[in-house]
Request: fold
Amino acid sequence: MGDRKVIVFDTTLRDGEQTPGVNFDKETKYKIANKLASLGVDVIEAGFPAASNGDFEAVKYVGENLDGVTVAGLSRCVKSDIDRTYEALKNAKKSRIHLFIATSDIHLKYKLKISRDEALKMAVDSVKYALGKFDEIQFSAEDASRTDWDFLIKVFNEVIDAGAKIINIPDTVGYAVPKEFGRLVEYVKDNIHDRENVTISVHCHNDLGMAVVNSLSAVESGADQVEVTVCGIGERAGNAALEEVIMAINTRKDYFNVIHGINTKEIYSTCKLVSEMAGIELQPNKAIVGFNAFRHTAGIHQHGVINNKATYEIMKPEDIGITTDHISMGKLSGRNAFELKLKNMGFNLSRDEINIAFKRFKDVADNKKVVDDEDIREIVEDVILNSKSFKEGELWG
Reply:
């Protein structure tokens, strides 16, 4: 079981672009897609070809110019969308159509205004119509986590019989909780036709802050594919963050016992690129890639990290492509961290000079949130200067 591979489906360019205020043009999409390919994602959802001419062109361009990765386009269960997606992806090296229709009663009644039977027919007819036009057909039951489970299985089985080989269980509005979502994945796994040849995928949103943990619960329950975005960008509160899902699987491989194709050393640079292109600054305490994710402020923590990083670091920053000094100097910093900082900055002070400098540092830190290298350099130079004057005075006294 240890070699079960989880497929990473990245939807930064489609669901990620639905972040309010974000708009990726063709060149930007291609630049990000290239980076995602070198990161090692298996599938890139490049956009929604029927949504606009710009999106059509972007999906077409990414599909035609990207090697070694499957390029997907989103499509409603209507012929015109399928045709448009086919036109965009017909020259892709490996293409996938991602068909979706809502299956929850609330969406059927108030959004689509159709019955369950009508939705089922649209889903099946669309899969049949798409057959042979794409290398792969993926079907999503939108709002699956609020759909009647038996109806969900009925839809999945009929689309599988019609030719869909990937079925996706979206928690579209971030409503699910981990144990429940894990049980839903198990229920689908146990009740679908042709389980051996069908890929079960999940797509989780973060409305209650549970997109990552729901995705991991699904993986634990046997999901074969996770749909993620870089930095967790996306509609409303966003999607499951690629970097968090992957590093959880890596850090706790003893628990999850699965593998993936992501080159983790590319994570940080990918997140930086996407946050720049999207114009979204990462919150400092963002897991994995936030500015503070590997910074230690409390003296006790700093002392531990200096002696052995594993005391407070469960991941190596180098593993995600970060190389930097992770000791954040402030009023809670201890003497060990201060001495290490001096050493790293190239200062070689006597015991007395260190004592005076540390006291000065604490005084500065009480009035400043973070004491930067420039502050420390000034303190040390002042101490050295005073110490030198004192020695000279003693000599001539």
